[in-house]
């Protein structure tokens, strides 16, 4: 089974607030969806998030499997004053933009990158379109009396849209299916297809729904996420998942009885560029007594086809790769059970822990026996 992660080459938040409509925040550690109250009035002005992943990284991921699903994942930090329900939408951006090196707190404000008004900077001053959009695209905001037009351009339509609705009591990490969007990027990268079959990769825009953005009478709270400039282990990522499992040993699988599950002949450390084959040794915990010339500890045992792995950060207990019934199945060959793990999707200089889940006639068993490894640079 395979999970493969890539990380943004650039990201920023752009603000429609009158004091910040030219502001660039490309170096901020936080990305946020917020409606800020005006300085001289009681109106509320929305922000949007821009992210882009490199074509090379996307191609590398797609080369591993063309039968993938993909999701955009942002990890929450300190959300504030949230309403009871949140609605977030993701679209592919239809124009190029610059990240810049500005920060929200800079004085004077830095505008050497994209902002609500400009997609490059306030010197060249290439503005986001606010009307006469190209076929299949839209942008701006439909509230001309209160909010300055601008704020990005994006492709529109159901196949170019991802969304997530959650309550303020839910886990507030963003995890939006963008498979159809990435497939459009792929058609452009590999076959030079143009809209609507393919679109160039200019990244993603993350925004609240139009209903929330266009209402200037109140705030919906502040959704904050770690950016690629974070000093934590939670940068945004684009996750690719596919099924690469091969299990031809179901006839030999352990259908009942207590088992010992351990790692077999694996390294304690892996380079961040490694593709590791994690081997697993399975045997009966209480084997039947037999007369033999070799130890039964050497016998090859197998879990069923309903067996899975999960990866957690060993210190924070953050689930990096969850148990996934489709994409974390264990494989089996003549030497035993195994799975492939791409280390470049894990943060280097961190320790990780592996858990296993096995379903057989006795029910579901989780094996969590401090199976550790470290990723190094």
Helix-and-strand structural type: mainly beta
First and last CA, distance = 24 Å
Q: Major β-sheet, in short? A: 7 strands, antiparallel
Overall average pLDDT: 92
Number of helices: 3
Percent of sequence in beta strands: 35-45%
Compute the CA-based radius of gyration. Answer: 24 Å
Helix content: under 10%
- List the helices and strands in order: EEEEHEEEEEEHEHEEEEEEEEEEE
Q: Catalogue the unreliable spans.
A: none
Counting DSSP E segments of at least 2 residues, the number of strands comes to 22
Specify the overall morphology: elongated
Describe, in plain words, how this protein is organized in 3D.
- With 377 residues, this protein is mostly beta strands.
- The chain has three helices and 22 strands.
- The strands form five sheets. Strands 2, 3, 4, 6, 9, 11 and 12 form a seven-stranded antiparallel sheet that branches.
- Helix 1 (55-64) packs across helix 2 (179-191).
Short description:
The protein is mostly beta strands and about 375 residues long. The chain has helices at about 55-65, 180-190, 210-215; strands at about 1-5, 10-15, 30-35, 45-50, 70-75, 85-90, 135-140, 155, 160-165, 175, 205-210, 220-225, 235-240, 260-265, 270, 275-285, 305-315, 320, 330-335, 335-340, 350-360, 365-375.
């Amino acid at each position: 089974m395979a999970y493969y992660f890539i990380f943004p080459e650039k990201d920023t938040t752009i603000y429609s607030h009158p004091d910040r409509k030219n502001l660039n925040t490309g170096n901020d550690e936080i990305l946020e969806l917020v409606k800020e109250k005006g300085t001289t009035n009681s109106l509320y002005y929305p922000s949007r998030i821009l992210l882009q992943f490199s074509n090379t990284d996307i191609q590398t991921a797609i080369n591993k499997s063309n039968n993938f699903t993909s999701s955009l994942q942002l990890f929450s930090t300190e959300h504030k004053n949230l309403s009871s329900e949140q609605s977030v939408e993701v679209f592919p951006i239809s124009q190029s933009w610059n990240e810049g090196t500005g920060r929200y707190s800079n004085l004077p404000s830095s505008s050497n990158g994209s902002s609500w008004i400009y997609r490059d900077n306030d010197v060249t001053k290439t503005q986001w379109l606010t009307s006469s959009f190209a076929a299949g695209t839209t942008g701006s905001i439909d509230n001309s009396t209160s909010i300055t037009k601008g704020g990005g351009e994006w492709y529109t339509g159901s196949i170019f849209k991802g969304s997530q609705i959650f309550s303020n009591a839910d886990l507030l990490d963003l995890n939006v299916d963008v498979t159809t969007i990435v497939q459009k990027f792929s058609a452009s990268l590999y076959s030079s297809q143009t809209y609507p079959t393919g679109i160039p990769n200019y990244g993603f825009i993350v925004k609240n729904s139009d209903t929330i953005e266009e209402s200037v009478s109140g705030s919906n709270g502040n959704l904050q996420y770690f950016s690629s400039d974070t000093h934590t282990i939670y940068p945004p990522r684009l996750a690719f998942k596919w099924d690469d499992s091969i299990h031809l040993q179901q006839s030999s699988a352990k259908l009942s009885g207590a088992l010992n599950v351990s790692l077999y002949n694996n390294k304690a450390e892996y380079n961040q560029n490694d593709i590791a084959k994690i081997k697993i040794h399975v045997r009966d915990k209480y084997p039947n007594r037999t007369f033999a010339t070799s130890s039964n500890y050497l016998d090859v045992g197998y879990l069923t086809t309903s067996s899975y792995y999960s990866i957690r950060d060993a210190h924070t207990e953050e689930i990096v790769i969850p148990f996934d019934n489709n994409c974390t199945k264990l494989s089996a060959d003549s030497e035993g059970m195994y799975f492939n793990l791409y280390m470049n999707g894990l943060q280097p200089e961190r320790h990780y822990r592996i858990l296993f889940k096995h379903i057989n006639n006795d029910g579901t068993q989780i094996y969590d026996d401090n199976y550790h490894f470290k990723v190094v640079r």
